[in-house]
Amino acid sequence: MCGIIGIIGNTRASSELYHGLYAIQHRGQNGTGMYVYDGEEGKLVKGSGLVGELYTKDILDDLKGEAGLGHVRYPTIGSDTFKDAQPFVKNEPIDIAMVHNGNIVNINQLKDKYNLELESECDLEVILSIFSGELEKEDVTNESSLFSAVGKTMDKLNGSYSVIALIPGMGLLFFRDPHAIRPMVYGRKVSLDGVSYAVASENIVLDILGYDIIRDVKGGEAILIREDKTEVKEQVRPAQARHCMFEWVYFARTDSTVENINVYEARLRLGSQLAKRVKERGIDLDVVVPVPDTARTYALAMAEELQVPYREGLLRNRYVGRTFIMPDQLSRETAVRTKLNPIIEEVKGKKVALVDDSIVRGTTSKKLVDLMRRAGAKEVHFIIGCPPIKSPCYYGIDMPTKHELKAYKCDVECIKKDIGADSLTYQSLEGLVYGLGVEKDKLCMACLNEDYPTQVREDIREFFAEKREKERAEAT
Fold it and tell me: What is the pLDDT of residues 347-358, one digit of tens each?
């Protein structure tokens, strides 16, 4: 999972990219990069760390131009922070800078089949190489050949990809895989400086920068914003929507709207569905406490439905990032202890409903329950906004092996005992679909039911599992 931005037509492109990347920093905290084109040449800056750490005033002042790309990185494959950081730039057959969000499932097969000579392990470099290769096969380089190359690239790629490419002399090109697994939205702004366009992973980027949202990019669609700020669109491959449910459950910012479904409203509905589950089970509660920050909305709606007091029983240290997207288990465990501290007066002697968005590996859940116990909670009832995660994700979320997933190894009773809770209540699959407000057949819920939108062969599953386990071992 990463965050991407593309801008064309704004004289302060680097400034807008900077503030836009800040808005989606939650999507990746491992590294960041920016490419800006001034009409004659492009400049590229990328490295490890957070947006506010890498881009100094001098760097931003040096990145002059009206068009650019930005990226924040969360690694799912590839462990070299600098080499694998985006954007990537290629100069043949024409200059192209590119960023993407997602994960290419058949990356190994593509490397072998096309004998790709790569400088990194980032799957974007594979996308860029194939796209450039398809463009080179065309008789001429024009708008028609761009869309043709996009379609032929899509035919070769297996996985999720929301891609933005800046092509000097032609414009800003962006496209999305036919299943539209990862989000992508674009908008337009009219100011005293003229007309500009922006495309990003989440609409909050456009809101913050003052762009009027046009719409989400469709699955299988490619859009070119020309340098004269006119646009041309083509449905290069049929759309077969399978949007990732985890965007609403966890990844997207609470104030975002994904596929016309507001994340905050979806999480409120999910919280109401949790309340129904608690009622069905007859669990007696004194207080509802969220695990900050994502679960706050779940907990608020659940508390209102149950007519049980809602309290902030865990204080979050705002200077610690999102533990789920940290690159290794040691980092996650250390961050949990640093990130959260109980407010004893709110939980001592009480039957606590501790609400979280999901259980992935289970180690964080165990520590959270222990925090409540040590704060004096009489009972700890763990309530989860998402159904049990039992299968790996191959589309950009760091869940690469079944054996790391708590719900694959254990049933609910086993997990309850292992994390030390008095009860454990998961969201139902039906409750999830109802809460999200998206048709079931338009959701990717493969991590819950192993129904993958694309074919994921056993050798591919083994490759990703072995690769990520090796990288984690090296990280520790």
Answer: 999 999 999 999
